[in-house]
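input
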Amino acid sequence: MILGMRWAWVSDPDLVTGWENFDVFSINCYAVDPTANIQNIVDLGVDLPVMTGEFHFGALDAGPTSTGLEGVVSQKDRGAAYRYYCERVAAHPYGVGCHYFQCYDQFVLGRFDGENYNIGLFDICSQPYTEIMESVRECSRSIYLVKDGLKTPTEEKAVSIPMIAF
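output
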């Protein structure tokens, strides 16, 4: 299976040229709601399932002091944002899946490029963030029902804040 190039953004229709050689069109999509980004790919004429290869939400109430590319108020909001996002991907006719970036928070002193985001499902001591894990479980219970149109996606949205990222 060829998952494509995992575009960070598609700013020109020529960038999707060659899509017919892939099995899935992959994008990174840092947004509260991925629907518009998925639909943009479809509107450009791509007739493939669309997968989000990277997204995350960070908060400032625990862990490192940077939110990453999408900031929310709290760990509870991170959970709500995760579920809202994943269920929106599932509800879109072309949405085939999404991959959360990343499993663990980044180190407080930063990785090689200085990023030190509170974006993990677990902290740097391998302890789970309970609030987001509860949302992951609930999302996992309902995601196939949402994909099959038997359940509407959650309407619970997180409270967004400006990102703090390096």
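quick obs: The first strand starts at residue 25 and ends at 28.
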